## 1
Amino acid sequence: MKKNYLFVVAVVGFLFLVSCQNIVDPAPGSCGQSGFDVVVSSTTPASGCNTGDGEVKVVSTGGDGAVTFKLENGIFQASGTFSGLNAGFYSITAREASGCEVVIQVALTSVTGVNITNITSMDSGCGTSTGSITVTASGSGALQYKLGAGGTYGPGSSITGLASGVYTVFVRDGTGCELSATTQVRTGMPFATIKNIMNKSCAISGCHVAGNIKNTVDLTVDQNIVDYAASIKLKTGNGTMPKPPKPKLTAQEIESIACWVDDGARIN
């Protein structure tokens, strides 16, 4: 009887394990829990249009271990100083040792020429194209704007009808001086929607809850949903999470998860 009892437990345990697609990836750093942030300490304006003599300095606060910095799509470096810059609107990323990142936008002006002082975006919605971008700029004479290097210049500082994604906007003044700035149009998918999906289909008995299976991520914890967002998107997208016999997610639920992750997986 004792051997039979142990055999039954093993069988039940096996069925329990295969009833749920478990996320057991190595735990990433818990972003947002170390007070990690980055701020601008100083800027030196460029002297004119495309003179390449501007500078931005940023410093980090909080965080774990050594912090590195990068400008736009460049490579990470130990210093938070970036020189030899034209006027423009720049994205600077700071990364702490655990891999968590903070991104800020910095407006670097010029003494003469075009200045982009702000760029804002409105959400597009998930799977729709109702987003927009608005640029605030100054320069000599009438300003013109275009979306992307292949776009056509026009007088409107607001560009509408955009799907979610990363866009570059160009501004040109009456002297021909041109600057560009990059921004992201998000879908605006709220974290509350993703939390509800997790609670309904994944953070349930027999799956991702505390004390359930060794090394299984507890998806009742908001920060865990954020930290494992990429895995959740991948596994819900390919149909392996939740695993049968758990009910499948609807196409809309899968799209909602993908939109939220693509937005940056934020607790918004």
## 2
Amino acid sequence: MTLATHDVRWGAGGRLIVDGVSLAVEPGRVLGLIGPNGSGKSSLLRLLCRLRRVASGVVTLDGQDIAGVGRRDLARRLAFVEQQASTDIQLTVCDVVRLGRTPHRAAFASWTAEDEKAVDAALQRVGLMGRHDQHWHTLSGGERQRVHIARALAQEPRELILDEPTNHLDIQHQLSILGLVRRLGVTCIVALHDLNLASLFCDRIGVLSAGRLLAAGLPEEVLTPALIREVFGVDVTIRVGANGHRHIDYLVDHEPGPRP
């Protein structure tokens, strides 16, 4: 295992938000985190990135406590993509992606051909090389998210953590972003709201509720009607779709309204 938590706890305002979570992701695999709002997904991701310090327990990277890993070394190894990131500064797409090279450059160091190569490669991987000089504020939501992933890739990470990367995106861009993440070939931990997207794109799934890990395993092991009812309070049926993946159908207790 590359990145793992061991009985990790963290709280704020006198409330325990992450409560004894032990979880690990295998190299090159995509681990999805699902759970209701307030279940601790975002907090757990920030603990994994050392943006917050654990109250107890330990987060390890290749078996080493990340508390002992230098900030620059950690940033060269692990990248984080937030839900929404914005700026009032007039930046181009290239400017944003170049920020990903910061961990690899000494203070006041000149920009190198290696830096430029990493930026171009990241833009190529997300399909935005043609937007190299376009202003950030003119991009769509889906394009901005792809730029943030490119910025993370410019760090040349081995682990990539994403906090609800499909939030506020239309269906086409949701599929595009998660398909991109799936093809990257790096170890990924991604928090998601959509259970069908989690089933479609994740190798394994961890289910959080009230800060605790209730289940972890293959999508077909975890996404059961009983667990979904327990965690999300909804009834579902599950069928195998045309693509061979399990599809969750939500049951409603009323007839849909008349169509206009």
## 3
Amino acid sequence: MSLEEIKKRSRSLFERFEKIEPRRWTVEGSVMELATEVGDLTEVVLRKEYYKQNIYEDLDYQIRDEVADVLFVLMRIADYYGINLDEAYEEMEKLVSDRLKSRGV
């Protein structure tokens, strides 16, 4: 499945959420939600890597869930700005590869 397909599938979930949430999500709200979700992911990774005491039953599941939450919010932001994620990723990948080549790797 491509990133664009994931974005389209996510869009239908965004539209369903809009029917029950008290306020329509703006892109600014989505960016704040992204920060929240990254914070949640950070918390679980810190517990998995023994920086904090574990309070979860299944940390691997929690990490997977939080990564998916981050991806979901990123899809909302990309959708708002009309970003073709497949193209954007390919461009980023080429830039990174070129930088690495210029450093001999």
